[in-house]
From TrEMBL:
SUPFAM superfamilies: Bacterial luciferase-like
High-level lineage: Bacteria, Bacillati, Actinomycetota, Actinomycetes, Pseudonocardiales
One Gene Ontology term of the molecular function aspect: alkanesulfonate monooxygenase activity
A Gene Ontology biological process term: alkanesulfonate catabolic process
CDD domains in UniProt: Alkanesulfonate_monoxygenase (cd01094)
Origin species: Amycolatopsis saalfeldensis
Domain Luciferase-like, residue spans: 21-322
Name the UniProt record assigns to this protein: Alkanesulfonate monooxygenase
């Protein structure tokens, strides 16, 4: 797998109100549109390349907590921002593929070609079951998602689509206007089970991998890269929670403080895990590698001095990671710190950097 000379940096929108411990004194839990708008506008000004808006209808840490809605927010951010890529997550069971494809094409037009959708096949059971939507068995969700994204991709490509499958029956359907800036919006896919990796190899432009030790990520990348595929090779993204300071010791002290806060609020995390699909590989991985943040968080190893974090990013990029989707706490202050102190160091480590 060839390395990436110039990695891209993204930020997770704070759809839950926080990506770290909920009791952080300098990071009030706030999932409001106003906060997210200001955060992503600042990320755009700071030069971040993308933002990921995760999708839940209710907050999985407790339905008494606010939750940002993904697709309305993506459309608004597409209109307000200048250069940052807007990636909206989608759970196929929530929206018919024809409807979603139309929404995606509209946001692509609003953004001027800066939109991506992130296909995730759901793990939080109450969100669907309490709404009367069946929560299918793990592998069936991926079979459903495969049909769903096949229809969506065809429509995004501007094709006239007819599709007859187990779950969807679409006859002679075409959407207009088509994408005026490129072939179609970028398709990201998450998930690490075997059905997920097969779906990535067949249908994804970019695979989002959860933060975990290098050897595990290297194994996952090698598996997908070796699978049969038509078209351009799959590109790879990694989720990570960053704790960067002047020295390694300062960063480790900050991480220890976050762990104390996490311990005090662990009941929320335990309740979330109890409501997750036990077959979701993500949670099996999380159990092996304790971390701060979601989606692997600090298990990706981006904890240390500015130089240490930059060097580890360079090592991940050499492995083939193109996009780093980052979490921070307190989010805004640490995002600025990363842009000021870590990004320039990463650039200095780029091959052939002057």
């Amino acid at each position: 797998m060839a390395g990436v000379a110039h990695p891209r940096f993204g930020v997770w929108a704070v759809v839950y109100g926080s990506w770290g411990p909920f009791d952080h004194p300098d990071d009030p839990v706030d999932a409001s549109w106003e906060r997210n708008k200001q955060l992503i506008l600042e990320a755009d000004r700071l030069g971040f390349d993308s933002t990921l808006i995760a999708q839940h209808l209710v907050n999985p840490f407790g339905d008494e907590l606010d939750q940002l809605e993904t697709w309305t927010s993506a459309a608004a951010l597409a209109a307000l921002t200048e250069r940052i890529e807007i990636i909206a997550a989608i759970k196929p069971y929530l929206v018919h593929p024809v409807v979603l494809a139309k929404q995606a094409l509209q946001i692509e037009q609003i953004s001027g070609g800066r939109f991506g959708l992130n296909l995730v096949n759901a793990w939080f059971k109450p969100e669907l079951e309490r709404a009367g939507i069946p929560f299918a068995e793990h592998d069936e969700r991926y079979a459903y998602g495969r049909e769903w994204i096949t229809v969506v991709r065809g429509l995004l490509n501007g094709e006239r689509v007819s599709f007859q499958g187990k779950y969807f029956h679409v006859e002679d359907y075409q959407l207009r206007p088509i994408d005026a800036t490129r072939t179609r919006p970028t398709v990201y896919v998450g998930g690490e089970s075997d059905p997920a990796r097969a779906l990535v190899a067949d249908k994804a432009d970019v695979w989002f991998i959860n933060g975990q030790p290098r050897a595990e990520v290297e194994r996952l990348i090698a598996d997908v890269a070796a699978r049969p595929r038509e078209g351009d090779p799959v590109r790879f993204g990694l989720s990570a929670f960053v704790v960067a300071r002047e020295t390694d010791a300062e960063a480790e002290a900050e991480l220890a403080a976050l762990w104390e806060l996490a311990e005090a609020g662990k009941a929320r995390w335990e309740a979330l895990v109890a409501d997750a699909d036990p077959k979701a590989v993500m949670f099996q991985t999380f159990a092996k590698y304790p971390h701060i943040g979601t989606n692997g968080g600090t298990a990706a190893g981006l904890v240390g001095s500015y130089d240490t974090v930059a060097r580890r990013i360079r090592e991940w990029a050499d492995l083939g990671i193109e996009t780093f989707m980052l979490q921070f706490q307190p989010f805004e202050a640490e995002m600025r710190r990363f842009a000021e102190h870590v990004v320039p160091r990463v650039r200095e480590l780029a091959p052939n950097a002057s």
